[in-house]
Specification:
The chain has 159 residues and is α+β, with helices and mostly antiparallel strands. The chain has one domain: Nuclear Transport Factor 2, Chain: A. It contains 3 helices and 6 strands; from the N terminus they run ααββαββββ. Strands 2-1-6-5-4-3 form a 6-stranded mixed beta sheet, with helices on one face. Strand 3 and strand 4 form a beta hairpin. The longest helix has 20 residues.
């Protein structure tokens, strides 16, 4: 297999940046457009979600509002057919119940596949290093770049 080209690296960086932008804006339908039909989400401390329908249902808006997501040390490696992206993240968020901003820190791993000349996200897995819980809740994560979402069970965050 051939190495990733500079053009492929730029396309993957754009997909990652777009995901983050869509996540902060709560544009879940746009986010799902970046994913394969057989997308897999592997959250910390929860069972994986497999397939577009399961992932889209998890991404439905909740009461957590994401203010911003900072990406740290993004690295992309792979070939001209399969690539993986690793990065750290810091997400600032609040909830309807507690509007005080909080931060979640962690890292994520993405696997992307090139189909018909287009890169698509096939797997997202993440870890959570630190997140202060909302009073009276158990912190749960939701979607990938992300952060907490106490009102839903196991997954990363969304707006």
């Amino acid at each position: 297999m051939d190495e990733l080209t500079e053009a492929d690296l730029r396309k993957i960086e754009l997909i990652h940046s777009s995901w983050i932008k869509f996540e902060v804006a709560g544009q879940h339908h746009n986010l799902m457009a970046l994913c394969a039909d057989d997308i897999e989400l592997w959250p910390p401390d929860a069972q994986p979600l497999l397939g577009r329908a399961a992932v889209a249902a998890q991404m439905a808006p909740g009461t957590t509002r994401i203010h911003c997501i900072e990406i740290i040390d993004r690295r992309i490696r792979g070939s001209n057919k399969v690539a993986y992206l690793t990065a750290g993240y810091k997400t600032t968020f609040s909830s309807a119940e507690d509007p005080a901003p909080r931060q979640a820190l962690g890292s994520h791993l993405w696997i992307l596949r090139k189909r018909a000349g287009t890169w698509i996200v096939t797997l997202v897995s993440w870890s959570l290093w630190a997140v202060p819980p909302f009073p009276g809740t158990v912190s749960r994560l939701r979607v990938p770049a992300l952060g907490p979402r106490p009102e839903k069970t196991p997954f990363h965050q969304k707006k």
